[in-house]
Structures are given as structure tokens and as C-alpha cells.
Amino acid sequence: MLKVKRILIMVLLVCGLCLMNTSVQAAGELSPILKADGTNLIYRGTNNNVMGLTNYEYKVQDFRSTWVATVSNLDIDKQTSIESYKANLKTIINDLKSWGMNAIIFQIRPMNDSFYESELNHWSEFLNNGEDPGWDMLGWLIEESHKAGLEFHAWLNPYRIAGGNVESIEEYAQSVAAKNALHGKNNLASNPDMLLKTSAGGLIFNPGEPAVRQFLIDTVAEIVENYDVDAIHFDDYFYAQLANDSADNITMQKYPIAGINNKADWRREQVTTFIRDLSNYLKDFNARNNRVIQLGISPTGIWANKSSNPNGSNTAGFEHYGHYLYADTRKWVKENYLDYILPQTYWGLEHTTAPFADLAKWWAEQVRGTNVNLYLGNGLYMERPGYDRADWLNKPNEIDNQLKVMGVYPEIQGYCFFRYETVKTATPQYISGYNGIQLIKNDYWKTLIPGAPLRRYLDVVTDAPVNLRQYDTTITWNEVDNARGYVVYKVEKGVNLDQNNPKHIYTYLASNSVTIEDSENYDIYVASVSKANHISSATKYEFSLDSVENIIQAIDNLPTPVSLDDQPIVTAIRNAYDNLNSSDKALITNYQKLVAAE
Fold this sequence. Notes:
The protein is 31% helix and 17% strand. α2 packs parallel to α4, α6 (210-226) runs parallel beside α8 and α14 (548-556) packs antiparallel against α15.
């Protein structure tokens, strides 16, 4: 079971989280951020310089990820065989780990379909052409992700059903009903009254229908009850641009809300009701099942512009608060419905209407004082052909500068790239992305660390590891119940461990063993990490000759030949051997090596 400490421990954790086990606070020197032409970058519409860290500050915890899009097979091809599909997934996992990431956001329900066995949703055409793939792809992927130290964030598009080319809602619903009957499913798209047509000729579920909300919550319930996911993740698709904006007038008439008379407010309330109900469901599910399943949202980067809303950002771009998405994400943050928000702040620092720095500042202000984590989305794809955005093209320091701007705000605890294939193909011809990925891979994110701690689950903690022991260059310890992983610290002898010092971290991993080649002059410590990413106190590896196993190991580790410098350990081994009873002495199969050393 997850260890739920008493109220006293909760108070200590609340007080202590600012001091330990969080991202390093921005305490360093600040400098003006420079544009590509060498002049100072300023906040939009002002003369104020954008400031960033002079030197990047390394972290002890940070959310680091990329989206893996399955829709239209953007990041992974359809299955041709089980083994080849597994190989493709393993490549993705290994790539993320090599880039220093600690989470994968994998799309498992792109179009009212599924990459998992479901009673509610049909198999995705993007997996195996809508047919059963013949194996539990999702279960396997989650297990392999966890082995690699990656959190698994299950990415769903809740309302989206079809992207285009739907001529008749009724005919589409009839086709789904036929599929339901054939495959024994219960997909709600068989009911035409639950559907709305988009201006692109696609379909979405009608967010104003209570049956839709229940179907989506049931879909999430099916996932969390059957799979060990770490988060449910939605992106920016909520309402859509409708073919006929009055198509849901009858829905509004059926379900009036006191005090709300205009459709914009009514639509916002429909989406908010769904998010609130889902949040409450997950909170209750977690409490009943000792789980920590996060709810994360990744909306478009602008909630609202301050020109149209006094609470908005210093921007002039598309707003998801209003037409046509109607997503009040700021309210979801303020009401603590979410565990994290990951706005798609895809624009570059030099963008003229939605600059990255202005948005980073605004979003940090919104989460301040809440229990919601803030991560920012990176749009390095924008320098690719077809986009050719001036704010991304030929900006060799773009990602470095974004990270240094983010470092000013302790509220920002992570960074996520859209998307996997764009990161993988960030070659030198795409200098902005290439320089940034090389920088994080080889320097900023080179040391693996756990994700950001979750403030909605302060009481979910784990014990420190015990029974640390060494075999040659490998140190192992007992597995800790319900630990997500372990932080290994490597500290010069004579120096006290500081768990908030990034330089003391050797690595983060999921297994209960680590190989360290050059540990002679260092002390090694290990701490466990809970499912809520809270780090335990650390246990120091202390060499001991209190068992037959350790004596055998100590003899094996003696050099050949020994020198006078080895005399103390040889003497210690002899004394430990002499204290054994006769039956235990007989187990020391390498005793003659000890005699030779003496």
C-alpha cells in the first residue's frame, strides 16, 4: 500500500517542499535575453527587457517529455507485425531516455478509438487498420516505459470523432451502430443526437449532452481500472468550429443553467463540468485504490488576450477561452481541478503577437498559489518546411534562451516538445532545434532525474531504501513498496550529501540496482521516489563484514597483488572470518585468496 503519513508528516512536507525535492529555485544572476541580431529582447508592447538566467540552473526534479502522436501515424507507423511494432516502440522509449526525458505522452485514443482492448471504443485504424492487433500493446508499452524510468501519460482526445469527409451524421451513426453490433461494443457515436458536425466536415461529441460526459468518464474509468497509467492527458481539442453554430441550440434549451443566458458562457460551463466531474472521479478512484493518476491538460498557448479580457495575457492571438474551443483553463487551474497544465507555448521568443516570454510569465502567475504544476510546450516543429516561422528560423540559441527564461519562474517545473519525430529529426539543417536538442541531451538533461513533485498528493511518500550491498561495481538494495524509482547520489568522501544539489545526483532509475565504475573515492546514497514524485531521505551505502556473503565479496574485491595500503581491509576481513562459526567458515570458498593476501 502507499504509505499515507499522519497529519504531522503532512505539515512537515508542506513546509519542507520548498526546501527539498523540488526544482532548484531561480537564485542565480539574471541577464537580458538577446535576439538573434544581438539586440535586447523586450516584452511585447513595452520597453522592458526580457530577463533570463545568466547560466542555466540544473534541476533535481523536472518534468521532461515529448508527445508521441499516433493520429495519422505521425510518430509511429501502423503495425505490420507484433515484433516490428515492439521494436519501433522500444526505439521511441530508448530515444526519450537518451534525451534525458522522464515521461512519455503517448496518444491512445486519437479519434473516438483505442490502442487498447475496450468495451466502449473500437480498435484504432492507426494501430492495425481497425482490427485487433493480437496482443496487449498498451500494457506492454506501459511496462517497458516504467522499466526505463518514464512516467506513462495516456493521451486522449475526448470529443473528436472524425476529422473530415462526413456527409451525414445519421449515416455515420448507423455505421457505428453496425460496428457495435458486430464487435460487441457500446460506442456512443451510434447515437446521432450526441454528435455535432464541424466546419471541416468532421464530427465531435456534443459537450452539452450529459450522456457524452458520462461516456467519456466511463472511457477513462476503463483505462485506469485496467492499466497502470500515471496520467490522463488531454490536448487542446474541446469544442470545434461547427458547420452550423446553432446546431446545439436545442441542447442549450434542454439543459439550461441558471444565470447563464449566452451560448459562449453555456458552452464553457459544459466543458468545465466535464473536467470537474472527471477530476472528482480520479480523486475518488485514487483514494479508493491507493493510486496516483494525474489529470493533465495541454491547451493552446493563449487563454485570452488582455485586450479582450482583463485577466488575459500580453498577446494578440487565438484564445481558447472563447470561440471556438470554449475552454476555461484558467478556472480549472484556480479551482485545482488539475494536477498539471501544459500550455502549447509553441511560439518563439521573437514572435510578434504571442511571444514565449510573455506567455511564460502569464502562465506562471496563474498557477502561483495553486496546487497545479506548470509545464511549457515547445514548438520546435515550426522551423520546418510548411511552417517556416520567422520566430523559429535561424535562432541557434532559441531553446537555450527559453530554458533560461523559464528558470526565472519557480512555478515552471517542466518542458515538453511537440513532437517525437520532430525531436528525432532535429538535424543541423534545422539549427534552432538541433542546437537545443544537442544542448539538453549532452548537458542540461544529461543526468536523469525524476519528474516534478505533485502538490495534490503531499501525503504519498515512500520509505528510504534499506540493505544496500555491493557486488563488484554494482550496488543493490531492497525494493521499496510503491516506489516509482530511485535517485542515486554520488558524493566525494568527506562531503555531506545535499539532496537539493544537482551535482550530487548520479542518476535516476526504476530498478533497484546501479553500476558505478569509479566509486572508490565517493560515498553512494540511494533515495526512493513515490508515485507522486516525492523523494525520500537517502540511505548511505556502508561496507560491512557482518555476513558470509559480504566477506566473500570483500575477498573477491582484494587486488592481486595486494599492497601495504590494503593491509587494513585484509586485517578486517581476517577478524571477521575468525569470528565466524565453523559451518559458516566452510562457506568461504575463496578463503585461500585471503591467506595469499596475508
